[in-house]
Amino acid sequence: MRKLVALYQEEPLSRWQGLRYATQANHRNLLGQIERRYVAQAAAVTKIRILNAPVERRYASATE
Fold first, then answer.
1. Segment 36-45 long-range contacts (CB within 8 Å, at least 24 positions apart)
2. CA pair distance 50, 54, nearest whole angstrom
3. Higher model confidence: residue 16 or residue 53?
4. Domain, as residue range, for 58
């Protein structure tokens, strides 16, 4: 997600370059909020996947 935002902001042909400074600052804030939500959701999904591992596998690796 960060790479996509960075490409959008750095690309000379993107609409980002035509925005006024205050508008860029506002959009930068909004893009940051979206990015933080996306990262938090991705981390939560990963955590759920780890916690939902079959019990046998979790305890089998601990006893070996």
1. 38/1, 39/1
2. 9
3. 16
4. 2-63
Token match 């980002």: residue?
16
**Helix or strand holding residue 9 (H, E):** helix 2-10
Number of helical (H) and strand (E) elements in the chain, helices listed first? 3, 0
pLDDT confidence of 62, banded at 50, 70, 90? low
- Residues 38/1, Cβ–Cβ less than 8 Å: yes
Identity (one letter) of the amino acid at 17? Answer: Q
Q: What is the pTM of this model?
A: 0.54
DSSP structural state of residue 13? T
pLDDT of residue 63: 55
In single-letter form, the type of residue at position 46 comes to T
